[in-house]
């Protein structure tokens, strides 16, 4: 009283609580999913969870992005420790020392502070000061020279480079999270 169909053996299929036995060979499973090596689901789940935990230990505070960040080629960034507790006026004065009349001449259009600990919901991240300039010549000059605050040299970097690095980490974590949810049999959400 058994039927064989599509790789499953059903014993007395009309009875409640029928027993299903998978007759697929590892080769058939491999042919159905060629990208993944054959391994036990427990082993795969352990590996995915270990990957996620390792990423969490390595990078506990990753910025999340609902969409890819837009390019801001004229935006520079200075990272500082939260203990420095700088003010906008101090950053402006440091810019003026490097570029006299930076704001009045219109070469610097804005100075903005980003508290990365608030953005990421964590502690231990460096603060970011975003300095938007109006031309590539000013950008190049500030990238070469940096600025001096409280007697310390602070290099400036392209904000796009930092955002792209943050976005790559976000994508990496999302991929690991999605794989973990799939391994657990849960459906990934839109936030993944």
Notes on the protein architecture:
Among the domains are: 1-37, no CATH class; 75-159, RRM (RNA recognition motif) domain (Alpha-Beta Plaits), CATH 3.30.70.330. Helix content is 40%, strand content 21%. The chain has helices at residues 26-32, 41-58, 88-98, 116-120, 136-145, 159-184; strands at 2-5, 8-11, 19-22, 75-80, 108-114, 127-133, 147-149, 152-154, 157-158. A four-stranded antiparallel sheet has the order 5-6-4-9. Strands 1-2-3 form a three-stranded antiparallel sheet, with no helix packed on it.
Write the layout of secondary structure elements.
Layout: E1 2-5, E2 8-11, E3 19-22, H1 26-32, H2 41-58, E4 75-80, H3 88-98, E5 108-114, H4 116-120, E6 127-133, H5 136-145, E7 147-149, E8 152-154, E9 157-158, H6 159-184
Antiparallel strand pairs: 1-2, 2-3, 4-6, 4-9, 5-6, 7-8
Radius of gyration from the CA trace? 27 Å
Average pLDDT: 76
- The low-confidence parts are 1-26
Assign an overall shape. Answer: elongated
- Terminal-residue CA separation: 46 Å
Name the helicity range: 40-55%
Q: What is the helix/strand order?
A: EEEHHEHEHEHEEEH
Q: What structural class results from the helix and strand content?
A: alpha+beta
For this structure, the quaternary state is single chain
User: Strand order of the main beta sheet, please?
Assistant: 5-6-4-9
CATH topology (fold) name of the domain at 75-159: Alpha-Beta Plaits
CATH class of the domain at 75-159: Alpha Beta
Tally of separate helices: 6
- Major sheet summary line: 4 strands, antiparallel
CATH homologous superfamily (4th level) name of the domain at 75-159: RRM (RNA recognition motif) domain
The fraction of residues in strands falls at: 15-25%
What's the architecture of the domain at 75-159 in CATH terms?
A: 2-Layer Sandwich
Q: How many extended strands?
A: 9
